[in-house]
Design a protein that fits this description.
By secondary structure, this protein is of the alpha+beta class. The protein contains 7 helices and 13 strands. It folds into 3 domains: 33 residues; 144 residues, Immunoglobulin-like (Sandwich); 105 residues. The protein is elongated, with a radius of gyration of 28 Å. Pfam families: 7TMR-DISM_7TM, 7TMR-DISMED2.
């Protein structure tokens, strides 16, 4: 009887040790996910979503001063869970505050670029220590951007001491917040590569439109003119969706920009149907002409 009691006690102690080890490992994982990101000379690109702490502001009325109070700071939660590699809140009317801390080594550069490659953010406010807030979003002019860039990119200055940065975001669409920190060199190279691929794509569409327009001038066949309009509308829709339309064509028209891609793609769809009908009628007329000649 005594032996059984001893064995049960030992099993209980082992269970407690295993449970304690599990909880300790979970706690350490949580802490490490929200500790300061240390940048060194070799760092070129880093995903910040795993180092972010999140606070949901259901009222949407809190200011940075409110956020910095100890009671609110204690309510920030680390971005953990199965989707901690990205930040996606789905469709929500709530305002979210994101906090991340950064420090650098002595040999690391001080100037970096924070990229947020998601256009559908109505409000995006960035707060850096000792600097004026930067306000961006779909409801503001594209001229409010600190750099000439189709998406959202913010200059970020770091020091050897740990500093905390804050983002305040809200969206009428699905609220997704990808965060990538780039070195200046890597960011410039990535942007150059993106521009090259975009230039090839839009250049191809423009060449296709020009070719069909020349065919229309030569043959006077209406189908080629319709296809020219289709190619141009397709290019303009993609141009608007990638942020270039607002950057180059309508920087001070945020209301139009919010519906531009949908409206232009609607025109694209109508032109594609018109082209299909016109092409079918042309083919049918040609077939009838051949049959009449044989008769």
């Amino acid at each position: 009887m005594l032996t059984n009691s001893v064995q049960k006690f030992r099993l209980f102690c082992r269970f407690r040790l295993l449970l304690t080890a599990f909880l300790a490992s979970f706690y350490c994982t949580t802490v490490s996910a929200t500790q300061a990101v240390l940048l060194d000379k070799a760092t070129q690109e880093i995903n910040l979503t795993t180092a972010v702490e999140i606070f949901r502001d259901a009222t949407g009325q809190l200011t940075l001063g409110d956020i910095l109070t100890p009671s609110i700071q204690a309510r920030f939660a680390p971005n953990t869970g199965s989707n901690h590699q990205k930040i996606n809140f789905g469709f929500t009317t709530d305002t979210y505050w994101l906090k991340f801390s950064i420090a650098r080594t002595t040999d690391a550069p001080s100037d970096w670029m924070l990229e947020i490659p998601y256009l559908s953010l109505n409000h995006l406010d960035f707060y850096a220590p000792g600097e004026a807030p930067v306000q961006l979003g779909t409801e503001l002019s594209a001229k409010s951007k600190p750099i000439f860039y189709p998406l959202y990119a913010l200059p970020l200055r770091t020091t050897e001491q740990t500093q905390s940065f804050y983002l305040r975001v809200r969206s009428d669409y699905a609220l997704s917040i990808p965060l990538t920190l780039w070195s200046r060199t890597a960011f410039s190279q990535e942007f150059s590569n993106t521009l090259l691929s975009q230039a090839l794509y839009f250049g191809g569409l423009l060449s296709l439109a020009l070719y069909n327009f020349l065919l229309f001038l030569s043959l006077r066949e209406r189908s080629y003119l319709i296809y020219t309009g289709f190619a141009l509308a397709m290019g303009l829709g993609m141009f608007a969706g990638n942020g270039y339309g607002r950057l180059y064509f309508w920087p001070d028209a945020p209301s139009w920009d919010s519906i531009a891609q949908t409206a232009v793609f609607g025109i694209t769809g109508a032109l594609s149907l018109t082209f299909a009908a016109s092409f079918y009628c042309t083919t049918l007329s040609a077939t009838q002409a051949v049959l009449l000649d044989k008769a």
